[in-house]
Amino acid sequence: MDGIDDPIRWGILGTASIAHSGFLPALRSAGGGVAVAVASRDLARAEPWAAEKGVGRAVEGYERLIGDPEIEALYIPLPNRMHMEWAIAALAAGKAVFCEKPLCVTPEETAAVLDAARASPGPLWEAFVFPFLDEIAAVRRLIAEGAIGEIREIHSSFHFMLDDTENIRSFAALTGGSIQDVGCYPIRLARLLFDDEPDLERTIADAVWSDDDADEEIWGALAFPGDRRLLFSSGFRSTYQTFTRILGTDGEIRMTNPFHPREHDTRTVVHDGESHTEPAAGTGEPTFTPAIRHIHNVLRGLDEPRHLAVDEAMGNAPAIASVIRSARREGVEPPTF
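-> structure tokens emitted (337 positions)
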């Protein structure tokens, strides 16, 4: 049994860009962990990647890394369609798992992974990191204190320009599309702030589809109990934009970036005709850092787990499926509000 001061030994499945742009900087910032190995199906790809990114060693084949007794935790940044297979394999090996969002691309796959998580000694987190951020904690406090009254409506979007036509996000066969990549963020945020699940029979959506049948842009509404709603949009055809408004009965909160806030991002509270703007909280470290720090503390017995996938991941998959069905007009009648 490792001591509480020993670093958590991480393995990385695959060499996706988010592993070196998001995960590795945050792992170093969080402290208490080290990237021991990275696995790839192609060792010739993994070896230079490991050397360049400062990862201990390269391994050929995901199975070998999962079976390595030195590895305590696995980060899975593989393409969406591969999440189920390798998350289940990692959980079956008893590893702690931090799997990129979306955890899976269908409700059925998500349920299978969560069943595996319930049977495993290793905890599972879906890599939505914003619930761990100080900025989200600040907003939840404001809401709990009644700063804007009761939340009635959330407007939230996540867009960026995707210029690489060969990127896996562009291909439906690889379960790409903006709703799976970034549209999932507004849905997860609404579920967190409303503390409820949407009424999927009332979903409205439309989309612009690529030649490969992935959504390049998608927009719509999800209805929540109590006649509350999320109005959302996402896409790959606009400049980077993540603005969110939380409308209440007595005011509103405006966030320039609730998902990955940076130094220039702000939070504005509007109440009684006056507005007060502050810098977004906690932007001095990579946005993955609080989540990884929490995982380390859980694995060393220093913290009780929060935002586990078994508790929170199931709601997004059926919501996304309902949005796609509505946007495709798959037997969905326009709802009456």
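Residues 130-285+317-328 form a domain with the Dihydrodipicolinate Reductase; domain 2 fold (CATH 3.30.360.10).
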